[in-house]
């Protein structure tokens, strides 16, 4: 699209839209060019005509960041002229920043053939395995290695100095921390008492095949009460509880049951299985998924599908917890099913999926609703011969800018509908005009600054050396998109107690270092030569990467700063007048005298208690303020923490949280063991950051509105979600409130608009649209739920509450809510049956399982067996997870490596991975090898009876007992077994966003306890329930509610 193509640009005052002093610009002038898109797809479902006249709902008053009590950053100043021009209409515009540039995206999507919209029934399933006893072992804390003593710092301060001058200090050996880990004691807990078996009723030896199949979701059957159990699953009654029992119930999994009881006890294999649900969905829903109807329930996240965008955004970008929303708020409330969206605006696509096309409307800019400022989309309805359009979000009608005018055909569709992505696709981008840019100036390409702690810990662990050694290849992954000839630039800062900047200008013979010793008031001493094109300055950077490790090789500095180092990076971006990101490699609690100095408060015994929130909340607001300042300037911070003692991640991690950054943690980092992981994480981080300086606004049709936001971002008002940078792995979760009646003709419309700067420096808007159905029957709601999305929302909500409520309160809320969801279904949608029977809605039959997983996950309930930093790390990690990641986190993937004959292995999975099995010790065979991962941890469990040939082939030892389990990498042996295993591990890893360290475990190794914690269907310790126990417990709660 050539900007010259436009003829015409006229401004119409009615279209801009300032909001709270900011706006996304919004002029209007239509384009003429016919953009992209060629192909004439099939018909697009007509958007429904809106009627009522309700303006956009008001944002909720709840201040999103309340708990940290900061005042929001001042809004970006808007050009007064522009403001005056754009005022008018509702104040709902977005923040502004701007910048157009020629588009670089591939042109349009091809057409897509519509896929059948029907939703096949999900099948019940059943598998079998025998239970085997395996009591967990408690873990003993222990950790925190001694910190090295203080050593005299040795560096000059201030002024220019050539790098060579900085050396000194004898090296220190032997101060390092222990590696790898914790120590585990292994007392055995008392064995669980058997399970008080109970009503044998209904539990014949067969899986209760309970469910009659669920009818296709799409056709809203209007059955009457009683007819609905067709979509439910029936389970036999739960065992009765001993009177007075509350809390966790002893599990059945600990001891083999006496045989006469065996028949009576609940068989875990008869409980709904996550693996079976995934397999069934895979079988019935793999392949193309066409988004041509509102309210289409997408395949599960675990199913391989290819989105065909036919007017709604694909589920990789936006997932809703329900696709059919009850017309009445009261019905929604009764069911207690959470309503939310998980949005991954820049999600990676699968092969065969088209990236959203870029539409350049030239000076006209995107066409928007005159009132609510929603962007042109397939849901807008053209009327009055094409001269006006009605907005489905606020119902207002707006004039079509002359340049955008097009005649309508006999069906009322614009003749150019299929030539314009914004009229026929769910996802697309617009090039932003100047009005969408910060200060009305087109941005420069974002910069990447490496900020490296070169104090003793990082030097000793090998991190400094490793990173410098790999920078060259990491930089090769930098996006090289170039707009107007400008490319991304990089810069380097090192620090310990002072901050060092480097001049890497390509014209220098060698790099130069500048030291700022006065860290109280950080400034940028180097205006020219700090940020450079990594290709032009390649030689200088190469030299610098050799010199840095040499200069600091003998560092004995153990007192470090952090705040000033981040501030230094921020100042560098400010001086260069560009946005960007800092990759900060930090190792210890910042205790040096400087802004942001912290105290140690490593009171891990508080974890799991009512007081845990005190250590899970920041100890000072310094890092929140710094994070907000960075966010306001478009400076994203990614924290790579390689600590071997308490670093107070809960406090320092705020800088990442508020800027849209990620937190990575490498406890007891040792270059030889964790190096690959760190380098791969950095590489991915650099490659995946796709959108800088972003502002997201979610618009909804009337009757529903976004109220709560979860993720890593900053909000200076109640509607705009700002991040300094968002990557393709990140998601934001939004809770939607339903507070007004909806009508079926209208449906529920959602538009997500993200204004951002591309890595090449182009200002663009990415728009995602999704239409949901409205239902009058509760059963339709239960039939259209996406449980994985429900869990993502519940998980983020619960974790967020950790810093305000007690663990018990959070737990109770989760249990009560799930009981209410299921009781409401039972009461209103299932046919009458014995109260002893547990009836679960088909789409939610795994709710009890997943809730139990959530109650026991590290982020929510990690106790004093983990460090506070590890707990906090889990909490941060969870907040940015998309639905696939949160599902894996709750229900880890357990893959048998030796059972390659598993049926689904080859055909279903594009990766040819063996099919996973249920996460329970019952599935582990002593002659088997299993790989378990949850996106953060990865274990390889090796049974003691595995064939010696296999062990020899893979580990080059004669028995499992001889394997060196401290390794984190498999040997690269030249034989088929070794290759196959490494290949599977690599494939499993490639599906996750973090490079997981591989931990080898054998039965009875001390680390097996940790591994066992991830077998989430089992009971672990006194404080948790097994899946079966929990299901029974929940059933009891449901019965209480029904009585
Ligand atoms: Zn509108």
Automatic annotation (TrEMBL):
Keyword annotations of the record: Cytoplasmic vesicle, Protein transport, Transport
Domain Gelsolin-like: 912-981
InterPro entries per UniProt: ADF-H/Gelsolin-like_dom_sf (IPR029006), Beta-sandwich_Sec23_24 (IPR012990), Gelsolin-like_dom (IPR007123), Gelsolin-like_dom_sf (IPR036180), Sec23/24_helical_dom (IPR006900), Sec23/24_helical_dom_sf (IPR036175), Sec23/24_trunk_dom (IPR006896), SEC23_SEC24_subfamily (IPR050550)
Domain Sec23/Sec24 trunk, first and last residues per copy: 443-686
Record's keyword annotation contains rRNA-binding: no
Annotated Sec23/Sec24 helical domain residues: 786-887
GO cellular component terms, semicolon-separated: COPII vesicle coat; endoplasmic reticulum exit site; endoplasmic reticulum membrane
Mode of membrane association: Peripheral membrane protein
GO-annotated molecular function: SNARE binding; zinc ion binding
Residue ranges of domain Sec23/Sec24 beta-sandwich in the record: 691-774
GO biological process: COPII-coated vesicle cargo loading; intracellular protein transport
Primary location: membrane
Keyword Membrane assigned: no
Top-level taxon of origin: Eukaryota
Biased composition (Polar residues): 1-13, 154-168
Region annotation (Disordered) ranges: 1-267
Zinc finger Sec23/Sec24-type domain span: 366-404
Bias-annotated ranges (Pro residues): 133-151
Compartment list: Cytoplasmic vesicle, COPII-coated vesicle membrane; Endoplasmic reticulum membrane
Biased composition (Low complexity): 211-248
SUPFAM superfamilies documented for this protein: beta-sandwich domain of Sec23/24, C-terminal, gelsolin-like domain of Sec23/24, Helical domain of Sec23/24, vWA-like, Zn-finger domain of Sec23/24
Cited PANTHER family: SEC24-RELATED PROTEIN (PTHR13803), SECRETORY 24CD, ISOFORM C (PTHR13803:SF4)
Family as reported in the entry's similarity comment: Belongs to the SEC23/SEC24 family. SEC24 subfamily.
Protein name: Protein transport protein Sec24C
């Amino acid at each position: 699209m050539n900007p010259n193509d436009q003829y015409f640009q006229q401004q119409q005052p009615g279209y801009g839209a300032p909001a709270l002093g900011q706006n996304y610009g919004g002029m209007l002038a239509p384009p003429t060019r016919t953009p992209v898109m060629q192909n004439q797809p099939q018909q697009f479902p007509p958007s429904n005509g809106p009627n009522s006249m309700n303006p956009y709902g008001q944002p909720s008053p709840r201040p999103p960041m309340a708990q940290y009590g900061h005042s929001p950053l001042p809004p970006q100043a808007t050009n007064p002229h522009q403001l005056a021009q754009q005022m008018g209409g509702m104040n709902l515009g977005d923040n502004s920043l701007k910048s157009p540039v020629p588009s670089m995206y591939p042109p349009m999507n091809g057409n897509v053939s519509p896929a059948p919209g029907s939703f096949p029934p999900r099948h019940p399933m059943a598998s079998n395995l025998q239970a085997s006893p395996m009591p967990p072992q408690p873990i003993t804390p222990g950790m925190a290695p001694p910190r090295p003593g203080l050593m005299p710092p040795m560096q000059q301060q201030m002024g220019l100095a050539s790098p060579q001058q900085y050396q000194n200090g004898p090296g220190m050996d032997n101060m390092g921390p222990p590696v790898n880990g914790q120590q585990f004691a292994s007392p055995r807990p008392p064995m669980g008492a058997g399970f008080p078996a109970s009503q044998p009723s209904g539990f014949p030896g067969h899986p209760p095949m309970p469910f009659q199949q669920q009818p296709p979701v799409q056709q809203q059957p209007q059955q009457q009460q009683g007819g609905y159990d067709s979509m439910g699953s029936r389970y036999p009654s739960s065992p009765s509880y001993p009177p007075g029992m509350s809390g966790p119930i002893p599990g059945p999994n600990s001891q083999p049951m006496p045989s006469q009881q065996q028949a009576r006890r609940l068989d875990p294999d008869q409980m709904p299985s996550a693996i079976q649900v995934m397999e069934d969905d895979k079988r019935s829903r793999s392949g193309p998924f066409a988004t041509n109807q509102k309210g289409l329930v997408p395949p599960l996240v675990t199913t391989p599908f290819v989105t065909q965008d036919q007017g709604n955004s694909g589920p990789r970008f936006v997932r809703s917890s329900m696709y059919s929303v009850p017309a009445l708020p009261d019905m929604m409330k009764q069911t207690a099913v959470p309503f939310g969206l998980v949005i991954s605006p820049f999600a990676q696509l699968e092969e065969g999926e088209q990236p959203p096309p870029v539409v350049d409307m030239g000076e006209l800019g995107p066409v928007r609703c005159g009132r609510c400022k929603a962007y042109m989309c397939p849901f807008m309805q053209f009327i009055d011969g094409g001269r006006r359009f009605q907005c489905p979000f606020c119902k207002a009608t707006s004039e079509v800018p002359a340049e955008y005018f097009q005649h309508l055909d006999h069906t009322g569709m614009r003749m150019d509908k299929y030539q314009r992505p914004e009229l026929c696709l769910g996802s697309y981008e617009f090039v932003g005009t100047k009005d969408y840019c910060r200060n009305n100036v087109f941005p420069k390409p974002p910069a990447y600054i490496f900020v490296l702690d070169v104090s003793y810990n990082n030097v000793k662990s090998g991190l400094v050396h490793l990173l410098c050694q790999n920078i060259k290849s990491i930089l090769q992954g930098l996006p090289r998109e170039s707009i107007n000839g400008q490319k991304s630039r990089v810069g380097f800062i090192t620090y310990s107690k002072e901050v060092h900047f480097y001049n890497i200008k390509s014209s220098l013979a060698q790099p130069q270092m500048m030291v700022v010793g006065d860290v109280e008031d950080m400034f940028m001493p180097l205006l020219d030569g700090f940020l450079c094109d990594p290709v032009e300055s390649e030689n200088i950077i190469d030299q610098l990467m050799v010199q840095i490790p040499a200069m600091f090789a003998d560092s004995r500095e153990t007192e470090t700063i952090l705040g000033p180092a981040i501030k230094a990076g921020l100042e560098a971006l400010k001086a260069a007048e560009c946005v960007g990101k800092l990759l900060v490699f930090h190792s210890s609690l910042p205790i040096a005298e400087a802004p942001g100095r912290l105290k140690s408060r490593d009171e891990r015994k508080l974890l799991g208690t009512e007081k845990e929130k005190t250590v899970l909340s920041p100890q000072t607001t310094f890092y929140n303020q710094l994070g907000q300042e960075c966010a306001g300037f478009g400076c994203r911070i990614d924290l790579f923490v390689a600590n071997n003692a308490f670093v107070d991640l809960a406090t320092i991690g705020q800088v990442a949280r508020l800027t849209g950054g990620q937190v990575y943690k490498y406890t007891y980092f040792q270059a030889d063991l964790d190096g690959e992981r760190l380098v791969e994480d950095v590489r991915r981080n650099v490659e995946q950051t796709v959108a800088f300086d972003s502002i997201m606004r979610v618009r909804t049709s009337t009757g529903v509105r976004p109220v709560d936001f979860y993720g890593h971002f900053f909000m200076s008002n109640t509607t705009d979600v700002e991040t300094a940078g968002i990557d393709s792995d990140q998601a934001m979760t939004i809770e939607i409130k339903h507070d007004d009646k909806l009508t079926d003709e209208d449906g529920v419309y959602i538009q997500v608009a993200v204004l951002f700067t591309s890595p090449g420096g182009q200002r663009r808007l990415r728009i995602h649209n999704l239409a949901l159905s409205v239902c009058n029957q509760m059963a339709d709601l239960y039939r259209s739920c996406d449980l994985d999305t429900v869990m993502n929302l519940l998980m983020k909500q619960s974790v967020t509450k950790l810093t305000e409520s007690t663990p018990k309160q959070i737990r109770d809320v989760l249990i009560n809510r799930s009981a209410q969801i299921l009781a409401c279904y039972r009461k209103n949608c299932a046919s009458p049956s014995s109260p002893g029977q547990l009836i679960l809605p088909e789409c939610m039959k795994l709710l009890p399982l997943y809730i139990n997983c959530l109650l026991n996950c590290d982020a929510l309930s990690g106790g004093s067996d983990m460090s506070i930093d590890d707990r906090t790390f889990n909490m941060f990690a969870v907040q940015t997870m998309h639905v696939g990641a949160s599902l894996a986190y709750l229900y880890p993937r357990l893959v048998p490596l030796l059972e390659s004959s598993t049926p689904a292995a080859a055909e279903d999975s594009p990766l040819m991975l063996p099919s996973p099995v249920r996460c329970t010790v019952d599935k582990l065979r002593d002659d088997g090898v299993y790989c378990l991962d949850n996106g953060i941890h990865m274990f390889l469990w090796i049974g003691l009876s595995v064939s010696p040939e296999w062990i020899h082939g893979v580990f080059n030892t004669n028995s499992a007992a001889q394997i060196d389990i401290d390794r984190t990498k498999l040997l690269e042996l030249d034989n088929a077994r070794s290759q196959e295993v490494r290949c599977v591990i690599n494939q499993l890893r490639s599906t996750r966003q973090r490079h997981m360290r591989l931990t080898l475990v054998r039965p009875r190794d001390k680390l097996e306890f940790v591994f066992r914690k991830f077998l989430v269907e089992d009971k672990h310790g006194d404080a948790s329930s097994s899946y079966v126990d929990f299901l029974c417990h929940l059933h009891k709660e449901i019965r209480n509610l029904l009585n």
